[in-house]
Amino acid sequence: MAAKRSEELLKELEHDILTGTLTPGMKLDEKSLTERFNVSRTPVREALHKLASIGLIDILPRRGATVRKVGLKELIEMFEVMAELEGLCGLLATQRMTNDEVQNLRHRHEDTYILVENGQYDTYYDANVLFHECIYKGSHNNFLAEQTMNLRNRVAPYRRIQLRTPRRLETSFAEHEKILHAIEARDAEQTSELLKSHVTVQQGSFNNFISTLPMDLLRDGS
Amino acid sequence: MAAKRSEELLKELEHDILTGTLTPGMKLDEKSLTERFNVSRTPVREALHKLASIGLIDILPRRGATVRKVGLKELIEMFEVMAELEGLCGLLATQRMTNDEVQNLRHRHEDTYILVENGQYDTYYDANVLFHECIYKGSHNNFLAEQTMNLRNRVAPYRRIQLRTPRRLETSFAEHEKILHAIEARDAEQTSELLKSHVTVQQGSFNNFISTLPMDLLRDGS
DNA sequence: GTGTCACGTTTTGTATACAATTTTAAAAAA
DNA sequence: TTTTTTAAAATTGTATACAAAACGTGACAC
Question: What ipTM did this prediction achieve?
Fold first, then answer.
């Protein structure tokens, strides 16, 4: 897109936020970043502004940038939208995926079984992302796929928390199996419903998710 | 958000694109903009980058910025997502709007009747936007409302074209009446369905919309 | 006449200098 | 001790200067 250097910064900072190296609330002052990346303030500012418009950081006039803290209300709102987009992806994917694509998805799914058995949380998390991205792309609606991934990234800092919930992996794997089954049966409506609930409530309830969130990651007054 | 000056530029340029003063494909070179707004290149570049991340313009490395030309395929994809978001807004709004909010919406709707009778296209267009924004906000999901408005803005340059389709105003007004009726009846499912179809196919068919699009607004190969 | 290469111009990407505002810190007064 | 004021320091917003890459023009060769 834009400059080469500023694009690198963007990717790196985005990665840091998504993986939790930079947690919500942290300050990002320009000077430190210029030193860290050995560039001038100009590309740093461009990267920051891009992050801001993606929604990953907040920039207040004359007060610098901070990793975005999302209020509880907004987080719930985001999941509400996320569920709908994910459901639409599933609906369209079920109608539009070729048999080859479905088969590919099944293989990808079955390959993750070993990770569940060994309890490899981090690796499973990445594989999980890929599984869902396969469905996004399966919708054959590129714009939708990108929007959904963007939103997924935006809530990622908060999802990673709930990684180590007991039996989380087994539950996720079982739900994936059901979703895959619905796709193979070409039951679009059921795929959509399964995905909508899979996104947020995963296993038990949304309450579990909320309860396990460290409060300091949320905006004050939540 | 960011700087005061660059924020003004952003708004003004966005307005120009949304109203059609700047049409898809036009080049936006930095020098002209610095002269037009009497500022240096720095705020100009910031505004351009923001527009790029909103999706209204394209920035190619070392090749400048152009008002975004959306391919036909992508345009269809965007409307597919738009319909879903609009439908979700309607679904939630029907469940969550207070009686006062519904009443307010009805008044707003009835006020537009005079515009239909007089064939005041431009004024009706604005009123139409407000009507829909009322529903967005009625979802009581601020994040969803913003996302929907953003997407609406992104396709706005292409919607404005079809303004003068014969009997477009009457049809739109009648559909609004039906939507409003479903909301008043608290029939969330019907509201959602009505809105989904209202967004795109308006009156006859999506084909009509596609057919009336000036081809030079679309990317090559569409 | 057409195609290609070279040079000059234009435009973008980056760095740095300057201006303005906010934060902080300390000092003075209550 | 606490609060308020004030000034210095640090940080952000803007402008300009410099570097590098792309575009256009023109000349030369075929």
Answer: 0.85
